[in-house]
Design brief:
Number of strands: 14
CATH architecture: 2-Layer Sandwich
Strand order of the largest sheet: 3-4-7-9-8-13-14-12-11-10
Order of helices and strands: EEHEEEEEHEEHHEEEHEHEHH
CATH class: Alpha Beta
Low-confidence stretches: none
CATH superfamily: HIT-like
Bound molecules: zinc ion
Mean pLDDT: 91
Radius of gyration: 20 Å
Shape: globular
Largest sheet: 10 strands, antiparallel
Helix content: 25-40%
Distance between the termini: 49 Å
C-alpha cells in the first residue's frame, strides 16, 4: 500500500507509491518512453481486455457493444481496503494510502489523438466521472476526488488508447486547500463567489475568452501557462458531480472545441486535463473552518494544459510559471483557428 507523507517545511504532501515501479531500469528514460502502440497488445482493446473487471459500463444505443468502461487501475496510487491510519513521526505526518484509482476507457477505438475524440465520447467520459464520483462519495474515508486525463507521451500517457483516470484520496491536497481558503475569504467579505466575479469581469472585457456556449465559458486565465484554457460553468456550482445530465453534452462540446483548436494550432500536442471540484463535506469531519461556506464560495472548473515547454526547476521551486506567450495572445491565436 502507498503512503501519503506531509512535510511541514514544504507545507505539502507526497505519495510514496513504491510498488508501482519495482525495477531500477523502469526509471530509465527509454523505458519511460515505451508507448503501447500496438492494438493487439493494448490492455484496453487487445486480447486480454475482455478479462478486465468492469466497475461501470456504457453501451452503444440498442446494442451490447461497449463504448465506455471504468476498470480498476492495475497499478493504483491508492487502495480501497483498510482503515485510514494517521501517524505522527516527529515533525512529520503520514497517512496510509486509502482511496480509489479507476481507469475510464473513454472509447472502444484504439489510437489517442486530440482531434480523434467525438463529442459523444467526451460526453460519455464526463458522465462516467459524474456517476463514479457519486458512487465513491458515499465512502466517508475519501476526502477528495480528481478526474484527470493525459494525452500524448509528453503528458505521460503510455497507452495509445483513449483513457482517463479518477483518483479518490483520504486528504484534501494543499493546493486545493489554498484555493478554498482564498475563495472563502472573498465570500466572507463580499458574500459573492470570487470565480463568479472574475467570470463577469472576463466576459465584460472579452480579451481572454476563447469560446462559450449556453452554460459554459472557456478562457485563458489572466496568469497561466502557455495556451492554458480553463472551462467554467457560467452558473455558480461548487461540485462537478452536481452537473445535470443535460448540461454534460454542452461541456463536452466546449472541451472538444478546445481539443481541436490545440490540435490545429500546436500540431497534435500532448495535453493534460483535470477537473477541479470542491471536496465533499457531507458526513466528513469538518475541523477545517474554511469549509463552512464552501458550497457558495468554491466554483468548479476544468483545466486544460498543452505540454509544450520543458521542465523548469525555477518553476518547480518557486511555483512561478514562465509563459512565453501572453495569455491575451494565446487567446487570440486560439480564437483565430478555423475549424471546418
Ligand atoms: Zn487499444
Ligand atoms: Zn461561482
Amino acid at each position: 500500500m502507498s503512503e501519503i507523507r506531509y512535510d511541514p517545511l514544504k507545507n505539502s504532501y507526497s505519495v510514496v507509491a513504491s510498488e508501482r515501479r519495482r525495477r531500477l531500469e523502469d526509471f530509465t528514460l527509454q523505458n519511460n518512453n515505451d508507448i503501447h502502440d500496438d492494438a493487439s497488445f493494448c490492455p484496453f482493446c487487445g486480447d486480454d481486455a475482455a478479462k478486465l473487471y468492469e466497475i461501470y459500463r456504457m453501451n452503444e444505443e440498442n446494442t451490447s457493444n461497449w463504448t465506455t468502461k471504468v476498470v480498476p487501475n492495475k497499478y493504483p496510487l491508492f487502495g480501497i481496503k483498510g482503515n485510514v491510519d494517521r501517524a505522527g513521526k516527529g515533525y512529520y505526518d503520514c497517512i496510509n494510502g486509502i482511496g480509489a484509482h479507476e481507469i475510464i476507457i473513454d472509447s472502444n477505438r484504439h489510437g489517442d489523438i486530440l482531434s480523434g475524440y467525438t463529442q459523444k465520447e467526451i460526453t460519455n467520459l464526463f458522465i462516467a466521472y459524474k456517476y463514479r464520483i457519486l458512487d465513491l462519495i458515499n465512502d466517508t474515508r475519501l476526502k477528495y476526488f480528481i478526474g484527470i486525463k493525459n494525452i500524448g507521451i509528453r503528458a505521460g500517457a503510455l497507452i495509445n488508447h483513449p483513457h482517463s483516470q479518477l483518483i479518490a484520496m483520504p486528504i484534501v491536497p494543499q493546493k486545493i486547500q489554498d484555493i478554498i481558503a482564498i475563495a472563502s475569504e472573498h465570500y466572507s467579505k463580499k458574500c459573492r463567489c470570487l470565480t463568479c466575479d472574475i467570470l463577469e469581469q472576463e466576459y465584460r472585457t472579452g480579451d481572454r475568452v476563447v469560446n462559450e456556449n449556453h452554460d459554459f465559458i472557456a478562457l485563458v486565465p489572466y496568469s497561466s501557462s502557455a495556451f492554458e484554457v480553463n472551462i467554467y460553468p457560467k452558473y455558480h456550482s461548487a461540485s462537478y458531480e452536481h452537473i445535470s445530465d443535460n448540461a454534460i453534452p454542452q461541456l463536452a462540446e466546449l472541451v472538444r472545441d478546445i481539443f481541436i483548436r490545440y490540435d490545429i494550432l500546436l500540431d497534435t500536442p500532448s495535453i493534460s486535463m483535470a477537473i477541479r471540484t470542491s471536496p465533499p463535506t457531507a458526513n466528513r469531519e469538518s475541523d477545517n473552518i474554511t469549509f463552512k461556506n464552501i458550497d457558495k464560495s468554491y466554483h468548479w472548473s476544468i483545466e486544460l494544459k498543452p505540454i509544450i515547454t520543458h521542465y523548469s526547476v525555477f518553476e518547480k521551486v518557486t511555483g512561478v510559471e514562465i509563459n512565453p506567450v501572453a495569455p491575451e495572445e494565446s487567446c487570440r491565436y486560439l480564437k483565430e483557428v478555423v475549424i471546418i
